[in-house]
Amino acid sequence: MTLTPKSRLIIALDVTDRTEALSIAEKLGGAVDAIKVNYPLVLVCGLGIIKDIKKYANVIADFKVADIPNTNSLICRETFEAGADAIICQGFVGKDSVKACVDVANKYGREVYVVTEMSHPGALDFLQPHAFELVDLAFRAGASGIIAPATRPERLVDIRCRAGDMKILSPGVGAQGGDARKAIDAGADFVIVGRSIYNAEDPYAAAVNFIEQLRR
Ligand code: O7E
Question: InterPro entries this protein is in (predicted)?
Answer without folding.
Answer: Aldolase_TIM, OMPdecase, OMPdecase_arc, OMPdecase_AS, OMPdeCOase_dom, RibuloseP-bd_barrel
